[in-house]
Amino acid sequence: MCRELAINTLERTQNSRWPSCESIIMAEVDKSIAASKKDFESFPPGYNYEELVLNVLWDVAYNLVTSGTYHVYAGVLNFIGEQLKSVCCSVAKEAKDKGYLTEEYYKIAMSNLSYGIKTVG
């Protein structure tokens, strides 16, 4: 259930689709789901999986884009890094638009993203 929702969310939030970026993100999402399978099974009926999926997508994309793997050099992302950054931005915007993130936390998230990209590479 969460995997399908994550794929649909990625498709919905991206203006342009990048299969390489999506496959990288979904591989990490699959690892998160596998590691937390019992946690997912214990959520009560009616649980808001959309908010959870947005959080997971943010965490995965943020960790990837700030890992240094997708930098040309410090502060400069390669093509896939730019795609990952776009995923972070669009997922955070959707979370804000749906009321899962306040404007303040959205600004903090964007600031942390910029800082993480600038200081790694």
Overview of this structure, please?
The protein has 121 residues and is mainly alpha-helical. It has one domain (2-118). It contains six helices and two strands, in the order H-H-H-H-E-E-H-H. The chain has helices at residues 2-13, 19-35, 37-41, 49-65, 79-97, 103-118, and strands at 71-73, 76-77. Strands 1-2 form a two-stranded antiparallel sheet. A hairpin with a 2-residue loop joins strand 1 (71-73) and strand 2 (76-77). Helix 4 runs antiparallel to helix 5 and helix 5 runs antiparallel to helix 6 (103-118). The longest helix has 19 residues, at 79-97. The N and C termini lie far apart (35 Å). The model has no long low-confidence stretch (mean pLDDT 87).
Write the layout of secondary structure elements.
Blueprint: H1 2-13, H2 19-35, H3 37-41, H4 49-65, E1 71-73, E2 76-77, H5 79-97, H6 103-118
Helix pairs in contact: 1-2, 1-4, 2-4, 4-5, 5-6
